[in-house]
Amino acid sequence: MKKLIMLMLSAVIINASMAQKEKTVEVGGAAMYPSKNIVENAVNSKDHTTLVAAVKAAGLVETLKSAGPFTVFAPTNAAFDKLPKGTVENLLKPENKAMLATVLTYHVVAGKWDAAAIAKLIAEGKGTAVIKTVQGGVLKATMKNGKLVLTDEKGGSAMVTIKDVYQSNGVIHVIDTVLMP
After folding, report:
1. Burial of 178 (C-beta count, 10 Å sphere; 0-12/13-18/19+)
2. CATH 3.30.10.20 matches 26-175
């Protein structure tokens, strides 16, 4: 028993030591650890409580915990607040689960696309890159004043405010507006 306790204590110390050495990015007042998956990190961001609630309501938690890799353009609570009054509450209703999943998966791209990879696509596309989402729609990516801007199919745009938040199963880019398919 003593040996088992010592082994468990050693594992905790080693994990704590590894966590201290990880290069983290702070999002919503919390460190985002590259060794954790998208969901494990997102639940700690106070700026993404609406997104986390939406992911849960849409039944996408297990998908975003899977190996991926995924690139997630993660709208903040303030981004959701920009939507017309009642939109979020309506989308979170059980009868609107499919619609909510459509909106959320429009923010997800298959693969691990960091800002440098997206910038390269933009350069190759002579100023614009077309990115296919998991939902099946497309986003147009451009650079404006050194910032990555995404434009949805309805003409709305979102700016990446925090880029390259690496996860064990992909990368998150925080955005300031909800994109609509």
Report:
1. buried
2. no
